[in-house]
Amino acid sequence: MSLKHFITTQDLSRDEIDELLGEAARFKRERLGRDLAGRSIALVFFNPSMRTRTSFELGAWQLGGYAVVLAPGRDAWGIEFEPGAVMDGEAEEHIAEVARVLSRYVDLIGVRAFPKFVDWAVDREDRVIHGFARHATVPVINLETITHPCQELAHALALRERFGDLRGRKYVLTWTYHPKALNTAVANSALLIATRLGMDVTLLCPTPEYVLDERYMALGHANAAAAGGRLTVSHDIESAYRDADVVYAKSWGALPYFGRWPDEKPIRDRYRHFIVDEAKMALTNGGVFSHCLPLRRNVKATDGVMDAPYCIAIDEAENRLHVQKAVMTRLLAWNGRA
Ligand code: CP
């Protein structure tokens, strides 16, 4: 049997997604357990984190397991990912050794590796996590690369807690301004999970240049068709917000300008008014607002939105803890290692 990893929710069946969300709800009710007694996870961070690191470390500990945190190039050796590379540069070891050695020590490997933001054609191959998956002999978990599947589950759980069945709910994924060009991972993920769960999804962004990668747009359309939902693109703020049940915000860099961010900056700067504010939320159907966090207040969303009762971003962040316990325990079970 090939190893089952958690790299994208697209690799999971709807039943498996429901199983994870059900387990997460159980872990939310019963925080402490022995489900990971004697088990361990290596959390490999190529980029910073607050929520992911804290919730994975704590989640493993609350279930009797142990987490080792590594930052290659800082507190661990730099890693080469290119097959056949002549390693006369900065990297001290190859993923072929790193993944296999870690697999002898731990039961699970989590990897956070953002794009390098130079060439999207390269970054969209997601070589770092696929390098781990290729060489590891234990399951690999995506802690955010070009998608963020743990965030998807936390988001889905928070929405189910509010709405129950999500089919047919009007869901708006809105681009927001940010002074820097950011990763598309959470936006790709929001599109995947919202369409998977059968919602009526609108991708709201300033211009066609901000539409997400064709791979995720195609998956979104296929998911929507399979789940009886819909995916549309809009550049009109008012009609997108009107009667929405869910507003999910994220900023990302326009892919046609990938790696040429000085060229994109003046375009992005024209769309600061995409900020989520109380007036826009008033157009919704008493909808909820969320964001993956971290969030720059009064740039992406106003204080009034962040502090409103309809903001469920903190619930979503809490849910990271619960869904990731489910991911760790179910991955071991699905791989016959429980
Ligand atoms: N949402 C999220 O992944 O947060 P961190 O970057 O703090 O881990």
Major sheet summary line: 5 strands, parallel
CATH class of the largest domain: Alpha Beta
Structurally, the number of domains stands at: 2
Total beta strands: 11
* Ligands bound to this protein structure: phosphoric acid mono(formamide)ester
Return the CATH architecture of the largest domain: 3-Layer(aba) Sandwich
Q: Structural class from helices and strands? A: alpha/beta
CATH topology of the largest domain: Rossmann fold
The largest beta-sheet arranges its strands as 9-8-7-10-11
Oligomer: single chain
Mean pLDDT: 97
Proportion of helical residues: 40-55%
Provide the succession of SSEs.
HEHEEEHEHHEHEHEHEHEHHEHH
Query: Beta-strand percentage?
Result: 5-15%
In whole angstroms, how far apart are the ends?
16 Å
Query: Tell me, what's the shape?
Result: globular
Short structural description:
This protein is α/β, with parallel strands linked by helices and 338 residues long. It has helices spanning 14-29, 51-62, 95-105, 120-123, 127-135, 149-163, 185-196, 214-227, 237-241, 261-268, 278-281, 303-306, 313-334; strands spanning 40-45, 66-70, 79-80, 93-94, 108-112, 140-142, 170-175, 200-204, 230-234, 246-250, 288-290.
